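Page header: ASSEMBLY MODEL / two components / 952 residues total.
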Amino acid sequence: MVKKYAINLTVNGINYEKEVEARKLLVDFIREDIGLTGTHIGCEHGQCGACTVVFNGKSLKSCLMFAVQADGAEILTVEGLAKDEKLHPIQEAFWENHGLQCGYCTPGVLMSSYVLLKENPQPSEEDIREGISGNICRCTGYVNIVKAIKEASKKIEGAGI
Amino acid sequence: MKEYKWIGAKVKRFEDPRFLTGRGNYIGDINCPNQLHAAILRSPHAHAKIKNIDYSDALKLPGVFGGLTGGDVANMSDPFMTLVTVPMKYYCMAFNKVRYVGEPVVAIAAENRYIAEDALDLIKVEYEPLTPVMDSEKAMEKDAPLLHEEAGSNLCWHDTFPYGDIDEAFKKADEIIKERFTFHSYSSTPMETMGCIGNYNPAEGSFTAWSTMHVPMLFHMALAMALRVVGSKLRLIVPDVGGGFGNKAKVYPYVVLACLLSKKVGRPVKWIEDRREHLMACVQPPGRIAEYEVAVKKDGTILGIKEKLIDNVGAYTRLPEPNHMMRPFQILVGCYKIPAIEIDGYIVNTNKCPSGANRGLGLQQYYFPLERIIDIIAKRLGMDPVDIRFKNFIQPSEFPYTTPNGSIYDSGDYPNTLKKILEMIDYKGFRKEQEKLRKEGIYRGIGIVTIVEPGGVNIGLLSMSLGIPILSGADDHAVVRVDNTGGVTVLLGCPSMGTGLLTAAAQVAADILDVNPENINVISQYDSSTHPWSTGTHGSRFACSMAEAVAGAAKIVRNKALMVASGMLEANIDDLDIKEGLIFVKSVPEKAIPLARVATITNFSTALLPPGFEPGLEARYAFRFDKANLADEKRRMNMAVTYANSAHAAIIEVDMETGEVKVLKYIVLSDAGTMINPMIVDGQIHGGVIHGFGGTFLEEFIYDENGQQLTTTFLDYLLPKAPDSPDIQIEHTITPSPFTSIGAKGIGEGGAVPVPVLMANAIEDALSPFSVKIRDSRMNIEKVWTMANKS
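Prediction written out in full:
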């Protein structure tokens, strides 16, 4: 039998204790072992950003890390953004500005935007484009994503989040 | 004409909250009980005989449950149907021979993907390498290595289509211009790769397959026939599609592979393509060679064009090929009154990945030479390219306009579109500035392109390649149902691929039925066993065709509801109206009955219904486009439903030191007719333009001379990212289609189509002091640098 390792981590505020193979990718763990399929796989070589999650406060491509390396980590995925069925201001801004089409890259883009706006609450257009440069979107041409993040910045400021 | 409340509004999309909260349901998120995962061993050779396959060691690995080879496939299934008449056996896996690097050779089913991939390392395949042929012209030479022995030639299709008096055109010409153009192969690489689940049910002898495809029913027949079952024994389910762009519109061989593997191992089998597999073996649109001969008058009037077009479709001529050749027949003359045109088309097999559709399907390949030649004619005659366009435009008074090959352009105002965009980009002002900047060593250029964008497809186009056109029609079907609580369910014949058609369908139904669109559920998961017919979501057909089917079904339901209400309220149908789900008498608004109550009567109190009234508040409607005719003896037919128009203009600057092209301004002037949801229209244009931008500057499928693929990761096959993508300014003019009830025109592809030629026009303009000639679509940084510095 393949050896498994015990890991303990927190995802969206819930603590999980699981045993995983050393080679299991974090993204596969998130999708398969805890069933959070909002985090997507687009390339498995760290180029597209569909698998981006917030990992100890920083954005991380979860296809580039093994689950065992996430032992003790605190992770936020797209499922953890909305609270009590109320969308996060970033989600609202993407909805209002048509910042998504097929929705496949969207969770990763949202998580990158989340970290960007935490670190830089009032980004310039250049900052925004740089902040999501790790995420590829093939539907929107980025135009409305940039617009949505600008709006999200205003919403967050207004709401004092 | 009734004022619409929802059609034309920027309605936020109803599908978005699911996607925004991680509740999308894509193929990767679907699992069956007892399911296995497949991994595929692929050919390392571009061309080789398979001498022996031994996967016995793989089967010994714990967690492996079985394997499938080309031999099994040939026993268990039939080759896919094609649209060419030469014999060619295209199975879902290589049989006896491999014809491109990446062709499936062995598939393994295991407990999970990790184990399945481990197992691939234990397979031994013995090959006898053969010489590959990669170039389409070399492949047509007599002594070229042969891909399909039974075909006897790598030229799998050739035909000539003369329209108008081409000899006369060349006789009358003051100038004849000859040019050769090439167009490279790039795709759209949706963020969701492809994938499928095959599940064989031995008790029924039936298959259920889940797959991410947006044209399921056009190819359902081909898949069922390959699996040797009648269509009703192949249930095809399409969940959310994570981007399609045509790449997921083809006969998808892996559905058959997964179904056969499931049949062999007796369990459901899931396979998700990884990115490397996607880039090397999913779909690579054909590279094209276009040789042009154009007859022109001194004043810039175009009299006729002869085009020799050669498409490299890779190892197999897979459905919907040869449609890169045929699809542009919808718009052969572009925006211009060209009286004579002749297409001499060649489809060639080589040792490349089989081709398939990509947003535009042939239109970008076609418009590249057509819109390039306008600028070339201008240069030759010493005129402004803008004036050549104005000179040759079809005039607004001439619509509906029948082109020499039978397309019936519905409406438009091309001169106005161009006039407006020239004002927006300040064409004259730019010319002055350009001159001044050149003296400072700054090289800026301007490009203008005007195109006609076909919406909807006369399916007769698919049969043009068979010699005798036997097919016709541009139909779409929809079902609208009001339930006993007043909720509305809509079933579409086409799946959603993320372009917002679920919202647009709800807007249309909401307006016709006068209900709140939030109470409308347009079912997002397509199921071939329950949904009405359509060929699928392709060819920019939703707004002009499927939306008409929704409107038609909703109108029948509305009339049924009014008929029942008229009895209940004792009023004439003409005196009734509906508002927000309430049917009322116009003169006495308090005399009213809710739509929900009417629905319950049609289901639970059928004795109250008028005689002959069919119970239930539901209707299925097929939009039949009466101008989707059968081709005549000269092979002329109207090949689309609507013909939108757009102009794209860009100002660019070439960095002479690096070869980088900076897009300083990008403007689109789009005439999409009535826009069902202008926000969605703009989103389609944004995404399309950046597809074209990537295709022009970054993306290309590259092979070495041995047929090895050099672009199998996103580190080699580069995509546009946010920092290097230009902002896009969009304006609209609105000329509704007179041929449909809503007047909307399809525009899903037009954003992407003009970009390569627009950039070529702009770069050539920027570098005009160096007499640079651009005849190829690819403009990567090295190439631009070379043009700028070595000319």
